[in-house]
Design brief:
Blueprint lengths: L4 H16 L4 H10 L5 H5 L1 H4 L11 H27 L6 H20 L1 H7 L2 H7 L12 H10 L20 H5 L18 H20 L5 H6 L3 H4 L2 H30 L16 H5 L1 H4 L10 H5 L6
Length: 312
Amino acid sequence: MDKNPETEKLLNQLEKKYREIGQDVETHLEGLLYSEPLTYWDYIQTDALLNLQIQRTDQPDEMVFIMYHQVNELLFKMILWEISQVAHHENLTAKFFSSRLMRISRYFDMLTSSFSIMQEGMEIEQYLKFRNTLTPASGFQSAQYRKVEFASTDLINLIDARYRETIDRDTPYEHALEHLYWQAAGKDYKTGKKSYLLKVFEEKYKNEFVAFTQEYNTINLYAKFKELPEEVKKAPELIRAMRHYDYTVNITWVMAHYHAAKHYLSGGNSDEAIEATGGSDWKKYMHPKYQRRIFFPDLWSEDELRNWGNDV
């Protein structure tokens, strides 16, 4: 059968592709004869995905809780994927940088709006029953979310505000990690002793975190922004995108999480709150006005920085 020009072109391109990696194109073409057609469920790995939900209790709403957090982890993976594209891009433009930041912000918009699933989609009575079986596990232990923070800004901006003056770029990563803002949620304020929640979290991820922070030390989003030419840094679309991302993550999403926790842990409006499953003082740990997580401080006015989180 005669090959049309398009088929000939494709075959030539395939031959060139495989020749460049030392492969025989005919071997790969022959392999197509025996391969099964792709299906949606194979490509998405639907069966594997739908078998990852294992309840620990007989409370129906626990399934909502499990799937909700698994969806969160998938979104965190999407966010890290987008950040990586910016971090490893060699010739950043304002357009590319802005577009990826807005993608990430939309993922966080999904995370923010999804808290209604938790707040309105689970009975408080059921949650207060199955939550005890979760102890001492906690959403605090989401390693991917910690990586989102590490990849977004310089490490100094994640240090507990009380210790920032004692930390600089020459500080060993291991020492800096001991003073991150979220360490306060896992330590006894009087003795400094670490909770089981924090100890097991660090046992699993500390080395990974050290390596990750070293990798992103000079290529996190803030570092990439600061090394841009002045005319690119001043692009209005980029500044808007960066400020939007910063506020979305560190105010909007955090406060949605805060209000969902308040709904379940203090009946929605009571000042008396039970502990989070990990034992943390979740009100001070989560509220932005206490920990003052700000990814891009140079893009905010002194007044905005001073009042960070005060108006929510």
